[in-house]
Design brief:
This protein is of the alpha+beta class. It has five helices and 14 strands.
C-alpha cells in the first residue's frame, strides 16, 4: 500500500520530482518564519477527491493529526500552518514522504485520494487495481497508464518467473537467477546488488540524484511503456 498511496491513489503536499528536485504537489508554495519554526503552505484550489469532494485545508489538518513535530492548523480553506517544536529547514522535503499522504477528512480510511488513479478493486494483502481519473492537475506530465494493478506474490522465484514470462512489468527481488540472461530486463541498482527487476519495455525517469527510480515509490505515476 505504500506504493499505492504515494502518487497513485494519494498525493502529498510536496514531492521529489523525477529529476531529484523538490516541488509542490497539493501545495502551490510555502514560506517560513526567520527562525524556521512556523511554515505556511498555500494549497491548490482546483483539486477534488475521487468521490467529488473538494480538497481543503481541513483535509490536511485531519491527515496530519499524528504529526509529532508540532501542530497543524487551517487558515481558511486554502492555507495551512505548521508550527514546529523545533526549527526544521527540511520540513517541505519531509512532507514529500509516503507517510504524509493526504486523505479526505470525512473518510480518512476509505481509500479515497486526490491522486491520478482511483481504487477500482482492492483485496488487502493480495491485489490492488486502480483506474486513471478523467482529469487531474498533472495531466500531460504524469499518469500514462489507463490502469495500474499491484499483485502480491510472496515467493521470489515465482515473481521472477512472472516477469520472465511477461505477466508483470516489475518485481522486487534479491537474486537474478533465471533472469540473468534476459536482455530485456534491467536490475536496480545493478546486477551485483539487485533490489528490483524491470522490463525494458517500461521507460523510467533519468536518475539525477542518488535515488533510484523506485526509491520514492512513484513508479506508477512517472513510468510509461516504450
Amino acid at each position: 500500500m505504500q506504493v499505492a498511496r504515494q502518487g497513485l491513489v494519494f498525493d502529498t503536499l510536496t514531492e521529489i520530482a523525477a529529476d531529484g528536485t523538490l516541488r509542490g504537489e497539493l501545495a502551490t508554495g510555502w514560506t517560513a518564519s526567520d527562525n524556521g519554526r512556523i511554515w505556511h503552505f498555500d494549497l491548490r484550489r482546483d483539486v477534488n477527491f475521487h468521490d467529488g469532494t473538494p480538497f481543503t485545508a481541513n483535509d490536511v489538518v485531519v491527515s496530519a493529526a499524528g504529526f509529532e513535530g508540532g501542530t497543524v492548523k487551517a487558515n481558511g480553506l486554502h492555507q495551512v500552518t505548521f508550527t514546529l517544536h523545533h526549527a526544521d529547514p527540511g520540513l517541505p522535503m519531509l512532507l514529500a514522504q509516503p507517510e504524509f499522504f493526504i486523505a479526505p477528512a470525512h473518510a480518512p480510511d476509505a481509500g479515497i485520494g486526490t491522486g491520478l488513479y482511483r481504487v477500482k478493486d482492492f483485496i488487502p494483502g493480495q491485489r490492488l487495481l486502480t483506474q486513471r481519473v478523467e482529469a487531474h492537475f498533472k495531466d500531460g506530465t504524469a499518469g500514462w497508464f489507463d490502469e495500474v494493478e499491484l499483485t502480491s506474490i510472496p515467493s521470489e522465484p515465482v515473481r521472477g518467473q512472472a516477469l520472465a514470462e511477461y505477466l508483470v512489468d516489475a518485481v522486487d527481488l534479491t537474486k537474478i537467477s533465471n533472469l540473468a540472461n534476459l536482455s530485456d530486463i534491467t536490475f536496480q541498482p545493478d546486477r551485483r546488488t539487485p533490489m528490483q527487476a524491470v522490463s525494458t519495455h517500461v521507460l523510467q525517469p533519468a536518475r539525477i540524484s542518488d535515488l533510484r527510480p523506485l526509491d520514492n515509490l512513484r513508479a506508477a505515476e512517472r513510468w510509461w511503456f516504450a
